[in-house]
Amino acid sequence: MSLKTLFTNALQTLCAVTLFTACNAMANDSPGALTTILTLDVPRYMGTWYEIAKYPNWFQKKCASNTRADYSAQVDGKVRVLNRCTTKDGEVSEAIGEARQLGGNTSPKLEVRFAPAWLSFVPMVWGNYWVIDLDPAYQIVAVSEPKREYLWVLSRTPDMPAKVYADLLARLEKKGFDSRKLERTPQGK
Q1: How far apart are the first and last CA of the chain?
Q2: What is the DSSP letter of 139?
Q3: Which member of 68, 115, 133, 152 has the lowest number of beta carbons within 10 Å of its beta carbon?
Q4: How far apart are CA 141 and CA 149, in angstroms?
Q5: How far apart are CA 50 and CA 182, in angstroms?
């Protein structure tokens, strides 16, 4: 074997090892596809949920505290969504929307729309609402979407015990979320 062949083989091996290592590192850094819970009982999900924490987002900038969502089933199978919060000025801000389940009647994937109903045919007005963590008693939930740009931690009560919150954050981190980005939501008066 010539020195040139030996050098070429060594260089190819080094490139292959470098490429494999880089791809493996990227695979470990990228969280992969977002997994949801297996099934969602939508009628049990109805009612009031208090926002405990969220990834900051542009459409909730005015909300300073007391953020909550009220879900109610409609006769057509869709869900009425009423989001409410208190602004920095002490005013109550409300947004009324609609949610629809994607897939079968136990699918944990929903879409939500806050645009006027006459725009509901436009795909861009619907946002993903995926239930990614939910306790068996339907008291604590985490909701996101496939890109992980948005995240909400909700509870049936305005408070969440510290251990329950910490355990949920640990599960969310395993799903590829950065818990340091979460902003706690004051609940109270």
Answers
A1: 82
A2: -
A3: 115
A4: 17
A5: 15
CB within 8 Å of 179: residues ≥ 6 apart? 169, 172, 173
Give the three-class secondary structure for 52. Answer: strand
Contact 140, 131 (CB under 8 A): no
Measured in degrees and rounded to the nearest 5, phi and psi for residue 161 equal -55, 140
Q: What is the pLDDT of residues 148-188, one digit of tens each?
A: 999 999 999 999 999 999 999 999 999 999 999 999 999 98
Query: Taking the model in full, what pTM does it have?
Result: 0.81
Cβ atoms within 10 Å of 72's Cβ, excluding its own: 11
**Which residue type sits at 138?**
Y
Q: Which residues lie below 8 Å from residue 41, measured CB to CB, with a gap of 6+?
A: 106, 138
User: Rounded CA gap, 177 and 144, in Å?
Assistant: 10
Indicate the burial class of 104 (C-beta count within 10 angstroms; 0-12, 13-18, 19 or more): exposed
Quote the strand ranges of 55-139, DSSP E: 63-73, 79-87, 92-101, 109-113, 126-134
Strands 151-155 and 183-184: unpaired
Two tokens, residue 64: 């300073």
